[in-house]
Amino acid sequence: MKSKLRIVMISSECVPYAKTGGLADVVGALPQALVALGHEVIVVLPKYRAVNVQKHKNEPFMSPMGVWMGDTEEWCAVHATRMDDTVPVYFIESEKYFDRDGLYHDAEFNDFGDNPRRFAFLTRAALQLCKDIRFVPDIVHAHDWQAALAAPYLRVWHWNDPILGNAASVLTIHNIGYQGVYGAEHFDYLGLQWGNFTSDKLEDHGRINFLKGGIVYADMVNTVSPTYADETRTSEYAYGMAPYLNDKGPNYVGILNGVDYSQWNPAVDSLIPAQYSAEDLSGKAACKAALQRQFLLEVAPDMPIVGVVSRLADQKGLDLLAAAIEGMVQAMRVQFVILGSGDKALESYYGNLPTRYPGRIGTYIGYNNSLAHLIEAGSDFFIMPSRYEPCGLNQIYSLKYGTLPIVRATGGLNDTVQQYDEATGAGTGFKFWEPSASGIYYTVGWAVSTYFDRPQHIQQMIQAAMAQNFSWEESAKAYEEVYRRAILNKMML
Ligand code: ADP
Ligand code: GLC
Q: How confident is the model at residue 2 (pLDDT cuts 50, 70, 90)?
């Protein structure tokens, strides 16, 4: 079966329109990779206030569109554009739900109270749109809890529908730490019938669990790395979902994310002060000097820099780094550059470090894509001490920038970084297993001592890292396979 598939992707984020994390990078790249394999893809997103209509040539497409939520008909409009001039992207415009600053929460990081309604609405609107534009999908591909209800909606409401009746559902879990768990008072609005509010389906300790509903009903479920797929089959990593994922048997798999090398490649990156490649690394030295100047660090070519670009969330283990960083700066010849936002205590801790360690630690609290690129290019090492990491993209970007990752060996970090071998100089980074301050301390110490004592190994690793290829083509083929299995599973229902 090699025929063209028609796929609708439903997501709450997509580069270049709306992003808080790696989900946006994935949804911004996977559709093109699927189109390159001969498939037809459309993407449906919310029209947040931040979506820049002019910049993205986003035009009114349909108005009004009625969407049934429980027994209420809600109204929205649809805007449309094409991503990279190819993939049609439809934005669901609802003043009530999406015209506000922030995607999921307000400026104080308080979740919007109507999030269950907002994202259930997005999902139903996406399905309604397929009907209204007569897009007959083979696959409805939902990303994360925000779109997970697509699977139960298809099964409960659209099984007999001329447009949606044959669509198989695929749910991609980018992060099982976020499940969309909300009070049962929202259930009527979702319109999924109380008979399905049971513990084997959508109910979770008296509440609604969007992700669980998606897992149970989807024809195929995947997550974003093989190691994380294994980890989430255990109670330690699954936040309560292990039994449901294990129930999926072979219908739950791990597919590593790819990287958009048109955005993240030092040879073509227009956001960095000097381009470079594995053959000629001189531009990397220029980027390092620029990074040191930008963050008011001592401009010293021989001082290793460890970079961080991250959401400041518990998952990322940056509280553990906080417990180790001052000891490292005192004991080692090393600089740190930190870019991130999120947890207020960590923002204030890291935000104060530059005044306490002038010239040695630089911090920028906030979200800044150009600085993210500069840190990838100018650092010598890139640290991700994550407690868990479904895939992680920054370490894969780091490899391409010849910036050696220092990572906890979990999830995608484990799958994408090869451990340094001191005997041969092989490997692409430095891994540790224990999520602790001392694990970080000793591994950074190992990287820094390698930098000073075995510089030829560092050069060898830089070459090995930059030669790695995590392009989307391979991952898109793996998704193609998942789609075909989803279609077969649906046919066997
Ligand atoms: P996650 O999705 O869990 O946050 P990933 O590593 O998959 O982790 O993706 C993070 C993405 O978000 C990367 O593209 C990274 O560059 C970007 N990012 C995270 N924090 C910031 C920030 N403060 N400024 C700019 N980019 C950021
Ligand atoms: C999530 C995960 C991250 C992954 C990204 C894209 O945000 O935390 O590890 O890379 O999704 O799949």
A: low
